[in-house]
Design goal:
Blueprint (H helix, E strand, L loop, with lengths): L2 H17 L3 H18 L8 H4 L3 H32 L6 H7 L4 H5 L1 H9 L8
Amino acid sequence: MTHEETEPLVTTTLEAEVAALDASTISRLQRARHAAVAEVGPRGSRRGFLAENPWALPIGAIAGFAVIASALLVVLHSSDSIEPAMAAYDETSPWLEIAEADVDLDLLEDLEFYHWLEIAPVDGGSS
């Protein structure tokens, strides 16, 4: 059944049940309804969280500012620390060449020794 088909059936059933109620039950239902409406207040006069808690807006603004300031400090601090670290690796650095190359990892264990061999003076064969 669709909504259009069930609505008249439900309406007539509920109206028949309301007509069968006694006067004291109807009176209690009306009092409960009036009490609920009075508790909420007239339409449009609901008080929201900020109206009931005037401290929430300034505290929220301070917290938001603190989060933004912290994020900016982290970003600014991290960008300053990257540049000096990258400056140590210029394009002529043998360490950078090895890191970029497809090298056997066993050769990297004695990397300092190979570097020393490269820069050590060659003896003229006096042995």
